[in-house]
Amino acid sequence: MIRFQYIESGGERLAVSIHDPAVSVDRDDVPVVVICHGFIGTRIGVDRLFVQAAERFASAGVGVVRFDYAGCGESSGEYGKNRFDDFIRQTRDVIRTVEQFPSFQRRPLVLLGHSLGGAVATVTAALDRRVERLVLWAPVAYPHADIVRIATDGYGRSDGETIEYRGYRLSPSFFTSLVDIDPLQAAKQFPGDVLLVHGIADQEIPVMYADVYGEAFGQRADSRFAKHVISKADHTFSSVSAREQLLQITTAWLFQRAVVV
């Protein structure tokens, strides 16, 4: 069953979709997954990526929560006025709400982040001990450089101006807030299990970031990190084959402990 509600965060209303597990699994370690979408994304995902993921996870007995960051999808606000700290606060407010759902209580919490949402999820996980495990799909490693490059179509500079990109007005403070964000440093501080999946054919976020993240997570005392690189997969795993591999890998991992690869 899918439920919908709004939650309050920083004066904005965030649209949230909740997928209850479709089957009951008699295990205490079956998690609930909170999905963090990427730059100017939505809780639906490109080509329904996050809807399909939620349906697959729920069918296996995993609860899932999808939400729109402020200014995206059906949430209120203006996306380009967000700062990175706002994304973290909104994520933590969603986590706080998830904890109140009776069917999700006492379940391990997994943050799943795609693209910029991967950086948000990593930093949030390092700050919030309620997050026990982490899934990263094609994560941004250098938020300021990566997002400026994307938003300026490769020009690579924002010059302190408001930038219009795909119908969004991105304020100077939006870009400034990304300058000191270091998800790779945050990765070293997260003690939980991690799964990272990236596509070789990703033209937006380089697949080499999988190795960069691997090195960061590998510096932890207990390096529980699993990495999978999918051949011919683009940034949103849009082909039928790539998406099926992505969902198979992730669903299987949710039911096991990560191993070093």
UniProtKB/TrEMBL annotation:
Read off the SUPFAM superfamilies from this record: alpha/beta-Hydrolases
> Taxonomically, which superkingdom?
Bacteria
UniProt domain Serine aminopeptidase S33: residue ranges? 32-147
The signal peptide stretch is none
Recorded hits in Gene3D superfamilies, A to Z, give: alpha/beta hydrolase (3.40.50.1820)
Name by which UniProt lists this protein: Serine aminopeptidase S33 domain-containing protein
Q: Name one Pfam family in it.
A: Hydrolase_4
